[in-house]
Amino acid sequence: MTRCRTVPVTEQVPYTYTVYEAQVQSRPVTRCRTVPVTEQVPYTYTVYEARAQTRTESYTEMVPVTQPETRSFTVMVPQQERRTETRRVAQTVPVVEARTVTRDVGRWEERVVCRPAAPQTVSVPCESRRGLLGRICHKGKGGGCVEVSAADTECALAMVTSVERFWVPNVITVTENVTVNRTQYVEQPFEYTVTVSRPQVRTETVNVTRLVAQQRTREVSFTVCVPRTVTATRAVTTYKTETYQETESFTVNVPRTVTATRAVTTYKTETYQETESFTVRVPVQVQREVPVQVCRMVPRTIQVRVPAPAAPCEGPTAPASGPGCCH
Question: Is residue 136 scored above 60 in pLDDT?
Answer without folding.
Answer: no
